[in-house]
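Long-time lurker. I teach an intro course on protein structure, and each term I like to show students one example going from raw sequence to a predicted 3D structure in token notation. This year I'd like something fresh instead of my usual example. Would anyone be willing to generate the tokens for the chain below so I can use it in lecture? Attribution to the forum is fine with me.
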Amino acid sequence: MSRDKIEGIVNTFSPELKPDSILPSLRLKRREIAVLVDGLVPTADEPVCYINNQDKAIKVTILRLDNGSYFAKLHPAALAGVEDKTSYIKEAVQFALKEKNIALKFEDIAIGGVIGAEGRKAVIYNLFGQPPRSEHAYAVFKLPGEAGVHIEDPRMGFFNFSDKLQSKLDDQICCFAATALFYFCYKAFSEHQEIPCSSSQMFATIHACSALKRKMLELEEKVGYSAETKEEVMASFIKDMSVFENPMNRIPAGFNPR
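-- Reply from a regular --
Happy to contribute to a lecture. Here you go:
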């Protein structure tokens, strides 16, 4: 058999070699998530930093919106190892309100942001007795009147086949998907006096947006194929989301997506 034929057979079963310039990953560090969040929801005021006895810092900026409402923006924080994350976020927001001398109850303020948590790998960390790391990004939101924040996983689960922005099970674009969930919830609240559904229903509505899911799929497909840098993808994402029609715009009063 000729050398050319042998090489042809080998190449048939060998993975295609890609140049070094191909985008290897879209996993983001905390400071990179902050670039996404601040690019879509910028803040000028200094945040209040809260640290509990678990030495987990979380920064909160209290915003006064054009519609007269107050909003607590959570800056990206690594909360792996915090057992009760909803209570911890409540403590942080209450602390920020007190520091800013704002006489407002926790139940009466809207809250949102993106956090990192151990996610599905918590069992593995516990099994081997290792301190958990923040492996995945989650969206956080709370409307006025709700007792606590809702923490939403943007990824489809192993046994959960409900609509999610991220169709794949890994964490390649969970930071982008979580940021989109937070941003569109925030945008809807900042532009309207009343939201005709709960935070969990807002998340479900955004998950169900087929055009937005296509955007997320396009991001997933860039990994291993695109010649763009991570920074270029992030900049394009901020630009695209800032002009994307909010899925919440078409929600009639009393609508329940679940």
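Some talking points for your students: The first strand starts at residue 48 and ends at 51. Confidence is low (pLDDT under 50) at residues 1-18.
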